[in-house]
Structures are given as C-alpha cells and as structure tokens.
Design goal:
Layout lengths: L1 E7 L2 H16 L6 E5 L2 E7 L18 E7 L6 E7 L11 H55 L3 H19 L1 H6 L3 H15 L16 H4 L6 H16 L2 H16 L4 H13 L1
Parallel strand pairs: 1-5
Antiparallel strand pairs: 2-3, 2-4, 4-5
Helix pairs in contact: 3-7
Length: 275
C-alpha cells in the first residue's frame, strides 16, 4: 500500500480522479477502486466509474477524511489518496508573546545570577578589607601599648617637673642606659646629642625647672598636680645626696620595667630592717 497524497479535499481534486478512472475504463483497462468516508466503505471495490460519486452521500459536516484506493490489477495492492475535510491540527507552537516572555525570563535569570556573583564578590572584598582594618587596629593597639609601657611611669607620679630630673639623669649617665635592654641605641643618640650640646658624661647640668627653689617654682605652677609633684621631688631631694637621688631614680626605673620585682624588693627590705 502506498499513500500517494494526503491533502485538503476539494471537488476539483475528486473530479480529476474520476476522470482518470473514466479514461482507463474507455480504453478497456478498467481500474478497481474503493472509497471510504471516515473508515466506512461508502463505495465498495468496483471498476465502474459511475459509482464514484456515491461517497458524497455519506459526507457530513462532521466528516474528517475520505480515502480513495486504486488497486493494482486483481491484487489487494493499492495506492491510497487521502483527503481531509478539516484543517490538520498544527503543532502547538509558541506565540510571539510567549517567545518574548521566555527570552525575558532567561535575561532576568542571567541578571540575577550576575547580581548574585557581584554581591558575593563584593562581600568577599569587604571581608578582606575588614580583616585588614582589624589587623591595622591590632597593630596600632600594640604600638600604643608599647609606647605606654615604655613611657616612664615617673612622669605620671612626678609630673612634668619630676620627669625633667629623669631626663637629666639619663643625659648624665648614658653608659648606664646602654646596659638596659634595647638601651644601646638610645645611649648612642644621647651621647651624640650631649656632644652637640657641649656636655660630657657625668657633668652636672641641671634643668632649669628641676633645681629651682620651691618658692620660685611654685609661682609657675597652675594646678594642684604640679604643686604635689614639686613637693614630692623636693622631699626626695632633701632625703638624698645628688648621687643617691640618681640611684633612687635608677631603682624606680628598674622597678617600673620589672614590676614583678617590687614585692621581692619590699620583702627583702622588710626582712633586712625589721628582721
């Protein structure tokens, strides 16, 4: 069986097939044919062209297709012509609007992915910046702690007046400072500065503030803290010679650097003098 064609039914197409049957019938070579309407044999197998139009009586508005079979000789081999009365259902396609919507959905999806990647990258960069800032803050805090710990505690006790005595002691004894941890560089700088000032180690240059009488310096102070510092310094000075006073300052400096030794020194003194 061979399907020659499947196409929309028209009267003209049906008439051409009828003309074909009549032509061969007139030449003495009749062709057997059969016609089915929606599967129903409206014209059973025959070679009489006059019966061809009988199928039209079985066609209704609801009919879907008519099949016309041309047999080969007396065999059952045939060529089938199929004509449809209704339009063939088209494949469900996408309308222009649906296509546009799908394209837009794809664009929106890619945009969201791009925005997400950007946010993830920016978040990573911000975290790195925060870590760098935290490291910088930690570094600054350590530097501040070092500066605070290295700052002479005598300044807080003695005020500006007392700290000037420490400076004078350091300038007069750079070799002693050199023996302290990390003091070699400082001692070298002090010696160089002393040379520029025309001072030698062991000289007794005193700062203007440190060795003024109490009555004179008191006129220059403006706070209770300064007056207390001056009174404290004068009391220390009156209790020691100049060399002893320098040694006391040295002891205080050592204790400020090694606070864990304070209790031991105090116990030793109590044991020695109260023992």
């Amino acid at each position: 069986m061979a399907i020659i064609a499947k196409q929309k039914y028209t009267q003209e197409k049906a008439d051409k097939l009828l003309d074909y049957l009549k032509l061969y019938h007139e030449k003495g070579m009749p062709i057997d044919y059969e016609i089915l309407v929606d599967g129903f044999k409206a014209v059973r197998r025959t070679n009489d062209p006059e019966m061809f139009t009988m199928f039209e009586s079985f066609v209704t508005p609801d009919s879907k297709a008519v099949e016309i079979l041309f047999y080969t000789g007396t065999s059952n081999n045939n060529d089938k012509h199929i004509f449809t009365f209704q339009d063939e259902p088209k494949e469900q396609g996408l309308s222009g609007i649906e296509i546009d919507n799908r394209i837009q959905e794809g664009i929106d999806r890619e945009k969201r992915n791009w925005e997400f990647e950007n946010l993830r990258r920016e978040n990573k960069e911000l975290k790195e910046e925060i870590e760098e800032l935290e490291e910088e803050i930690e570094k600054l805090e350590k530097e501040k702690e070092e500066i605070t710990s290295n700052q002479s505690p005598l300044k807080g006790v003695l005020g500006e007046i007392g700290s000037s005595f420490v400076e004078g002691f350091i300038r007069r004894n750079p070799k002693i400072i050199a023996k302290l941890p990390g003091g070699e560089t400082l001692a070298g700088l002090i010696e160089e500065d002393n040379k520029e000032r025309g001072l030698e180690e062991g000289t007794t240059e005193e700062t203007e503030v440190s060795f003024k009488p109490k009555s004179e310096t008191s006129t220059t102070t403006s706070s209770e803290e300064d007056r207390n510092a001056i009174s404290f310094v004068n009391q220390l000075k009156s209790s020691f010679t100049k060399d002893e006073f320098d040694q006391v300052l040295q002891i205080l400096q050592h204790l400020s650097d090694h606070k864990e030794a304070i209790e031991k020194v105090l116990n030793d003194l109590n044991h020695t003098y109260n023992g």
